[in-house]
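User: Hi! I have a protein structure encoded as tokens and I'd like to know what sequence might fold into it. I'm fairly new to this, so please keep things simple.
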């Protein structure tokens, strides 16, 4: 057929979009929905299958000619800047502002370009995140300083150590280091809160977002992708919990750790800490500086809405209501500014995801506290389901303009 080369060029464009969305943090259901919309706009008959480590597309070129393309990919890291430009490229091609060939060149440039924020900036963001999370959780100045220092250590380790034999146990090594250091320091100063320091430092590495995405994928009948992502997240949680358990046991063997009572953080300190936490997401999620105000607004408002509703209705109801706010608010943001809703939803969701609760549940199991461990893990699933259900309700209130 005369138009076969043009069709194959469109298919190449679609697979590049699939590759970009997969790399930059979109879930399987979002990827498949987005690709289906793009295919219909480009008049390509196709079906797609997305997994955390691959993406496949089957394309019908003519009545008697079809073929399948597959990309084998590593699980991606969130990059909101590249996601924004990839989404804009799709709009320009569909609106015929640029040709498909120009769209391919632009996408290849987006994929190949260096991240907006350097490794050094990401390390600084980990320090900001860890030190301020400890204040929000009720820690004191000493907890914040030690959490910030350990965030620096983990940031350097995570960016510099790329040895293959360490990759499979890196989370356990980081958790061991943090737990041993936190409990050891608490033996010299009784005013420290080692559990707060551990959670604050490791929260960046806890796969809470992956757990929530997995529950969402399973809920949307993307069973294979959801199950694979869920198991991957659970393995990371196991490594973190096991490393924390070993570190605490060893610290108790050599020292006599002491723990202080939890404190109530002054509201002004908590508010300032939340601003810094939300700002750190701009760097760690590789967002454009133009998104800073929206990311800070999404993070802080979500936290306060959730905290207020918890005090009135409890954790599960609060997560459901706050999830609805996130879903509706991010769709409103996408419609008003013509940008991917994920730019607003991800920083908001990250403060609600149940990963830290699941991490605590596994710690209970390692310490032979089976009943509390099972209860906590069940609570993790309940909160994850409430968050996913809430975002779906939000989509019904304000329908998304786009799949992202």
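Assistant: Happy to help. Inverse folding works backwards from shape to sequence: for each of the 404 positions I chose a residue that suits the local structure. Here it is:
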């Amino acid at each position: 057929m005369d138009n076969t080369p043009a069709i194959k060029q469109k298919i190449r464009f679609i697979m590049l979009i699939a590759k970009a969305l997969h790399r930059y943090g979109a879930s399987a259901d979002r990827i498949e929905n987005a690709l289906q919309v793009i295919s219909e706009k480009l008049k390509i008959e196709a079906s797609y299958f997305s997994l955390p480590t691959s993406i496949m597309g089957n394309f019908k070129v003519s009545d008697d000619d079809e073929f399948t393309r597959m990309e084998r990919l590593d699980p991606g890291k969130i990059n909101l800047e590249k996601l924004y430009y990839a989404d804009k490229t799709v709009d320009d091609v569909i609106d015929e502002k640029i040709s498909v060939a120009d769209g391919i060149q632009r996408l290849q440039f987006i994929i190949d370009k260096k991240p907006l924020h350097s490794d050094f900036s990401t390390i600084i963001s980990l320090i900001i995140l860890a030190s301020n999370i400890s204040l929000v959780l009720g820690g004191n100045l000493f907890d914040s300083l030690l959490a910030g220092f350990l965030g620096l250590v983990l940031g350097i380790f995570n960016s510099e150590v790329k040895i293959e034999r360490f990759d499979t146990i890196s989370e356990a090594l980081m958790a061991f280091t943090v737990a041993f250091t936190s409990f050891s320091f608490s033996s010299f100063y009784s005013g420290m809160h080692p559990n707060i320091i551990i959670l604050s430092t490791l929260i960046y590495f806890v796969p809470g977002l992956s757990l929530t995405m997995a529950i969402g994928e399973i809920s949307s009948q993307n069973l294979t992708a959801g199950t694979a992502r869920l198991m991957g997240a659970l393995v990371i949680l196991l490594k973190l919990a096991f490393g924390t358990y070993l570190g605490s046991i060893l610290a108790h063997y050599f020292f006599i750790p002491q723990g202080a009572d939890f404190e109530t953080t002054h509201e002004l300190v908590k508010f300032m800490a939340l601003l810094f936490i939300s700002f750190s997401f701009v760097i760690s999620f590789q967002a454009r500086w133009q998104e800073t105000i929206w990311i800070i607004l999404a993070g802080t408002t979500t936290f306060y809405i959730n905290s207020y509703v918890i005090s009135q209705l409890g954790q599960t109801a609060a997560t459901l209501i706050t999830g609805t706010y996130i879903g509706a608010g991010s769709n409103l943001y996408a419609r008003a500014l013509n940008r991917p809703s994920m730019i607003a939803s991800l920083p908001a969701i990250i403060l609600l995801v149940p990963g830290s609760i699941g991490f605590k549940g596994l710690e209970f199991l390692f310490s032979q506290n089976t009943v509390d461990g099972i209860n906590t893990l069940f609570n993790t699933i309940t909160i994850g389901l409430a968050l996913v259900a809430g975002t779906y309700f939000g989509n019904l209130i304000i329908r998304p303009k786009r799949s992202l």
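A useful reference point when you look it over: Strands lie at 45-51, 54-62, 65-72. Feel free to ask if any position seems puzzling.
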